[in-house]
Amino acid sequence: MSTEYTVTETLDVSGESCPMPVVKTKGAVDDLSEGDVLEVLATDSGSLSDISGWAETTDGVELLDQEEDGDEYRHYVRTTA
């Protein structure tokens, strides 16, 4: 994980499949303040493209990083508005 940001909150969507990781990520982001970083833990490999695509098309969020560790995927999303 990069040292350029600090995780504010962690959302565990392990065991959830499309579209729930994105739906729950959006819900969690809506409750954060500007500049907060949400760490999303997922087991759905599709979450890599789903969360990336969602972040690219959504105002007020920035995808900072995505990591893959075996069957676990970590996504780091910062609120920008």
UniProtKB/TrEMBL annotation:
<dbReference type="Pfam" id="PF01206">
    <property type="entry name" value="TusA"/>
</dbReference>
<dbReference type="InterPro" id="IPR001455">
    <property type="entry name" value="TusA-like"/>
</dbReference>
<dbReference type="InterPro" id="IPR036868">
    <property type="entry name" value="TusA-like_sf"/>
</dbReference>
<feature type="domain" description="UPF0033">
    <location>
        <begin position="11"/>
        <end position="35"/>
    </location>
</feature>
<protein>
    <submittedName>
        <fullName>Sulfurtransferase TusA family protein</fullName>
    </submittedName>
</protein>
<comment type="similarity">
    <text>Belongs to the sulfur carrier protein TusA family.</text>
</comment>
